[in-house]
Amino acid sequence: MCRWAAYRGNPLYLEDLVSSPAHSLIEQSHCASRAKTATNGDGFGIAWYGDHPEPGRYRDILPAWSDCNLRSLARQIRSPLFLAHVRAATHGATRRDNCHPFVHRNWSFMHNGQIAGFDRIRRRMEALLSDELFEARSGTTDSELLFLLALQMGLEQDPIGGMSKAIATVECLAREHEVSPLVRFTAAFSDGTSLYAVRYATDNRPPTLYAAPMGGNAGYCLVSEPLNDDVDAWVEIADGSAIMVTDAGLTTFSFVPQDMAKAA
Hints:
By secondary structure, the protein is α+β, with helices and mostly antiparallel strands. The protein has a single domain (about 5-110, about 185-264), classed as 4-Layer Sandwich (Glutamine Phosphoribosylpyrophosphate, subunit 1, domain 1).
C-alpha cells in the first residue's frame, strides 16, 4: 500500500509535510507504521498549485528517500494546495508515468488501495472513456484509470458524485465478470481550489486516512498516517466518508457508491 499527504490552506513549504516532520512522507516511504508494507519505494510524486490553473508536477521512479532533488524542491516550493505520494506498486510497472499524482487539465489525483481483478475488467473500464480521456491515459495503473473514469462520470461538475459513480461502476463490472467486487480506496483529488478525499472499501477495510488542522485560517492536512506523535491533533476519518476542504474549513459527508443503473 502507498502513503500520501495533501494540504490546503495558507501557503506552506512542501517540506512541512514531505521532509521536515518527525514522521514525514519521506520517512514513511521507508518506515511506514500503519500500512501492510513498511517500505514504499516504487517511486514518488508531488503536484502543487500556484499562479496557473494547472498544477506543477514532479515524479520519479527512485525511492523518495534517495532523491536529493525532492528534498531541494520541497524546501523551495511554497503552495496553498498540494498533493504528495510515495508508491508501493500493486498494478503497473515501476515507471514514471505510473507514479502518482495523476493530472488532467486543472485536476490532480492520488490513490492508496486496489481494485481486485483489475486485469479482467480493465478493458471494459477503458471502453467507457471518451476518446479524449482514453488518449490522456499514459500509464497502466488501476489508479489512473479510475481517475479518468471519474472524470468521464462528472467529477468536474460534482467531484464526490463523479467519484461515487466511478467506484460503483467498477463494482458492477466486477460482478458482470464474475469477479468478487473488491475496491479499497483512500484517495485525494483537487481542482486547484478545493481539496477532496474519500475513504471507502467494499469489504469495510479501507486504507487509513487522518486529518489535522494546519497552517491556520481553515488550513488542513490529510494523510495516510500522522506526521508526528501529537495524537490529539490527528482525527481518523471513518470508512465510508468523503471530505471537502475549502475556505470555510473541513466538511465530512457520507460516501456511498452510486449505482447509475439503480439511480436511473
